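hey so u asked for the seq, here:
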Amino acid sequence: MPHEFAITSVLSMDHILWMSSGERITVGSCGFYLAMALATLGADVLYAGAHGDDFDPQVVSPLRDAGATIALCPLPGPNARLDLIYDASGDVQAVQYEEASGTAFRVEHLPDAFWDSSHLWIGTGPFELQFAAARRAAERGRPVCFSPQGDYRGRAGALSAIIPHLSTLFLNERELNGLGFGESNEALAVLLRLNPSLRIIITRGGRGAWLIERDRRLSIPAAPAPRLINTIGAGDTFAAAFVLKTSRGVPVEDALRWATCAAALQTRGYAYFELPSAAEVDAFVTQTGAELPVSVMLTS
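ran it, structure tokens below
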């Protein structure tokens, strides 16, 4: 049986330092976070990731425990690494990412089962992988989601080659404004010219999210977090929850509410260690859904 979702990315070891509480090291990459969220919400997930020589495959056990199928591709050289430093007030002070062996990850490394899956999702990785995977998936008629995670800041030309093959693009507001297409409205217009059928989701942290398409623009506020511990991974949880619901025929407005509530619940713990179940999200939507109006955005 084909999987419901197949996700790929270069696995990294994330070294995250808080000035107030010290360092925590976990396996990361947006693809891993997305796979964790989807699997925890009840989706059938295949995660296909690459790693280096110094990577311990046991660190992906949380994803396996969540019910996902895992296909790892070992590549020679050191593993990718992310260093992220937060200051005492919780703001990001410094970011450094080394893709290392992940630069050699190519579409040929992906298993056949990846292409048989119903929905494909491309996360962090080299441009050669992202472009080839998006093009091949689109040629096979598969919906393609893309979460570039800041990889295309100032790289408008490279991103322009990928955009025509996508179904859904996930960005945060800072990423959108840093692509090199101009400020928000101008950048959105360029993206939709490149692919008039593209759906763009812009996550805005505590200010909610936007959904942008050629013929409509919607906005939803953020849901109140019942217990705010950490926001790392909240955007990935929003993305996973939204696509899961829309892929199963749920109207966009309802999917936005569900995704917003899933993201709020995710912040009760660090990264992917206290992700909400679908039942928990359903209950939170019932509790807060009326307070989350989806409004039509006026265009200038």
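Residues 252-266 form the longest helix (15 residues). The mean pLDDT is 93.
lmk if thats what u needed
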